Amino acid sequence: MADVLTSPVDGHDRDGFHQNSFPLERAATNSPAIAPEVATNPSQGPSPEVLKQVNDVLSSEIGITTLLNRLKASIATSKASRSEFASFLKKRASLEESNAQGLKKVSRATQHSLRQPDHRQGSFSSAYDDIVQIHERMSENGSQFASSLLKMHDELVELVNSSEQSRKTWKTTGLSAEHKVAELEQTMRKSKAKYDSLSDEYDKIKTGEKQTGKVFNAFKNKSAAQQEEDLLKKVQNADQTYKSHVQTLQTEKHHLETSTRPEAVRALQDLIKDIDAGLSLQLQQYALLSEKLLLSNGLSVSPIPAPGADPSSVRSLRNAVLSIDNERDLNDYISAQSSKVPHVPGDVKYERNPVLGPGPSHAREPSNQGSINKAPLQSHPPQSSAGPPPPSGPPSKTNTGLNPINPPMGHPASLGKNPTNFTPTGPPNPPSFPPSHNRTFSQTDYGSNSGVQTSSGHPPPAYTPGSPVGPPQLGALPFQSSQAAAAQHERQGSHTSAGLKSASPGPIQTTSAPPKPVFGVHLSRLYERDGLAVPLVVHQCIQAADLYGLGVEGIYRQSGSLVHVQKLKHMFDTDSQNPALDFRNPENFYHDVNSVTGLLKQFLRDLPDPLLTSEHHDSFVAAAKHDDDVARRDSMHAIINSLPDPNYATLRALSLHLYRVMDNAHVNRMNSHNLAVIFGPTIMGTDPSNAIADAGWQIKVVDTILQNTYDIFDED
């Protein structure tokens, strides 16, 4: 116990709480708020008057009795503490041990279950391993805390037992000496009384007074001289007895006052101080251990790296959760299945049975996959790209803006020199259609898009009934594989105005970067390119949320479909002017307003420079630390006014929209604080080095802006 009080203070010991064992011997060193109270006595010394009274009592014959009574009271208190506080320590230790073992057991069981092959792996599995390790450290802290409580219980019981035994010993030693002196004093008084009585009788005989009583009745038959002589002998004997009793009493009393009593007093005082200090120390140690447990658990959940160490070397619980990358896990899982992709068989061809005789060369039914026998194409040579279009229909798509395809090296023909004879319905401008009809090279989308009408009501392109060539014979092109033929059929069935890429045998190549991307582009670059202060994607998302999302519970907190968000993002990056991106029509965002809000948050997160800019990040955090609401609002207002024009306009539109969301908080349950929790790191950015420290201030910044929207921005 003394080690707890005298351990040197080590300011760096806190850094190891979450990794090391539970060092109870250093409990006081890690609690500067409590350790001074343990090591120092807050009470002042007694006054001289009190000291004199204490010395008078202790030096008197009641000193030992007084201290014995006081020691008895301390032992009684300790016994009560032993039966109550010690019982509390034992029960608390049992609860902590049970909780620690249960926490460790359930953590390991869950970890073992999630490591099964049929469960999700990747960043989620790695993050959960870190979470389990954190909980195991917390369970170890609990086990060490329980062990320390049991040790305290045993020490308290031992202290009470030893104090009680010592009290009995000193009670026997001290009181026996006191009793012996008291008995000698009583004997001395009796002998003195007898001596005084005989002296009085002898004096009366000498003076001749007539005496009566037992003594004189014994001398009835004796003469006066004989009586006087006998009485004198008795007086002399009584004098010797009285004198010896006085000497014995003086010797024992001197020994008691100079040796036995002070020794007993000191011993009893030490016992009282020991038991009182021991009980107080156990209480103080319990307070220190409780604080240590909480600190250790806190540093296990959110560790503080040592000076000069890599912050990423030790992950906190929050960092472990934030490290989960759902999109990467999905892509890794899908890419791992690439070896299981089945071999694509050759084109399905119609073979006429010879018993029916040869059929006409042009009587071919179009295949659902867009691949036809080569014979019909060979019977109709390719037309020149400079020739007039067929008279049976409007101009082909080659004349409406599609770039001719340059054939690969070694192939004799190109798709641009063989205009297909079909009549597309709808204008050549970018039509309105669901994202599933957008240009894509996904093998799955080829079949799913054929035969589906667009959202604007236009049917897919139909073949011209009177065409002498019939349906386009894409399967007959010598430089196209079956996959390229399917992709060409997909392009015929869609209403896109983008140029076609050259087709070649083998796997289809992915498209290059979009010419006018929207996501991941600086707001200033979007403003220079598009001439819109508020990006179109932000305007469309806010418009959809205002129309269809203000009454949705948990708007912006609920996650939309990741597939829908990615499709909408691809459409904005490909052609942001596409009429299918008019979100006033809920069909264009799959009747899922949460996907729209997810798209808006994705756009803000992908900005290379956050909406509130990295330059002003520290200024916003400093402004959020103002305690006065007006000063905080005015400071942020000044910083917002200094933002670049696109950032200011976008922030204004977003803030006015979120204020409308707040007005419907009684329905959607999204007040300013809930929205600030979501948009704080989204519009201010996240820096892993100070993400935890700034998280609360980021929320405060956005909360202040939303609460003072109409003080900072004009509604018009």
From TrEMBL:
GO terms for molecular function: GTPase activator activity. The keyword Coiled coil applies. Signal peptide: none annotated. The keyword Cell membrane does not apply. Keywords: Coiled coil, GTPase activation. InterPro entries: AH/BAR_dom_sf, F_BAR_dom, FCH_dom, Rho-GAP, Rho_GTPase_activation_prot, RhoGAP_dom. Residues 181-241 form a coiled coil. GO terms for cellular component: cell cortex. This is Uncharacterized protein. It comes from Clonostachys chloroleuca. The lineage of its organism: Eukaryota, Fungi, Dikarya, Ascomycota, Pezizomycotina.
